[in-house]
Amino acid sequence: MSLPVPVPQRHIAQKYGRLVSVSINTPDLTVRRFLRHATGRKARFYWKNGRDPITFAGVGLAAELTAWGENRYDSIQQQAADLFADAFVTTADEPMARPRLFGGFAFRDDFVPDNTWSSFYPAHFALPHYQLLQRGRETWLTINAHLPLEENDPEHIAEIIPALREALETEYDILQRFPEPETKPATPEYKLRYPMDQTQWDEMITAATDQMGNPENPLTKVVLSRVCEMRTIHGDEIPVDDALDYLDQHYPACYRFLFEPRPSHAFYGATPELLAEVNGTRIHTMGLAGSERRGHTEEEDMTYGQTLLDSVKDRYEHDVVVQSLRQRLAPLTTELEMPDTPQLYKLSNIQHLYTPIRGLLHQKSGVLPLVQQLHPTPALGGTPRPLAMRFIEQHEPVTRGWYAAPIGWIDHQLDGSFGVAIRSAVAQDNRVWAYAGAGIVAKSVPEKEWAETALKFRPMLDALQIE
After folding, report:
1. Residue-wise pLDDT tens digits, 400-438
2. Is residue 3 part of a domain?
3. N or C, which terminus of the chain has less Cβ within 10 Å?
């Protein structure tokens, strides 16, 4: 499958016209029903921050923004600004129901889509035709449409608003009559394949740690990943909806996401790591590095947690990440709050060292400049960044695609929130590829890092009911 040619940002307004966005309150409409009604028929998008009572979802395509190469962040920024310029928006007294773009970036700016990632650009964002906001127990349904530039005068806009409201009411009625999906998950049989065996993994880790001992090539840390390919034995399509239900239930503290630009071509996951969140001049990010399993009892869990806090290797790995974030953020901010010691970030099957970071930007510029500045963090790439990226390119046998890259949303003011797409998988028809990585420093032991990646595969395997 070949991707269409990207539209230059200067042509976005000419292509789509003026954006008109209308919202209505939709009592009792669930995000789950909204998304499942579009399964296999339309593009779908989903974002849920487990620490916030707000959920966003979208179906269909009102606009699509794409970009390639090293200028992809600037290109998306310009295209988004052009798309939202002069938008006419009514939001039923709920500002969060305003139009927003869902999307993300590939890990590398020179990414070329292969078979696994055939529906994903190096930078790819979508404005849904219909989007749903759930805030607490309230929901709002929004329709995004465009008027040709020659028909966007106030009189014509006033005439089209009732038609858009009628379309919303019709869609709401259809969704209300759609039966609530069954809760019993599908359980296809799978065949698993790991493109990299443990011997190859050991050799890659050893190559990294040997380089770290070379004073002429001072690589401090590199994050290396491996892939698990799962294929349904009888040709059943991957049950992405059931996987999302599982992740919502078992990883409520994570950022859950779905980016499905074409039906049955879906990137989804539950990441614990926030890359960047911007609201005006306020920013929020985090340092997340260093891992340990969870215990079966409270006492055992506390023991594992203390072991992680006391680990010289993990504390060093975490400090590399935090200090790098401090250096990257300092030129952009007037204030920066970073605790001196890390906390424990506990998930259902794993716990991490965690440092929350908040600050104030010098000026409002939206979320994408910060995303560009931070990606990839040392938690997903390494340090020094150029050496780590070169090592990954030379040694990892499978392209990362969108794994470990920014995934999130952008609103009409160009603010937004992006996670780091770890604990993730990409599904295509009857196949799905899951990714897992580990931070490698000089004291890393290949066998332990192999076990850590096996632990990190579990959310994606468990979500598909794979033992």
Report:
1. 999 999 999 999 999 999 999 999 999 999 999 999 999
2. no
3. C
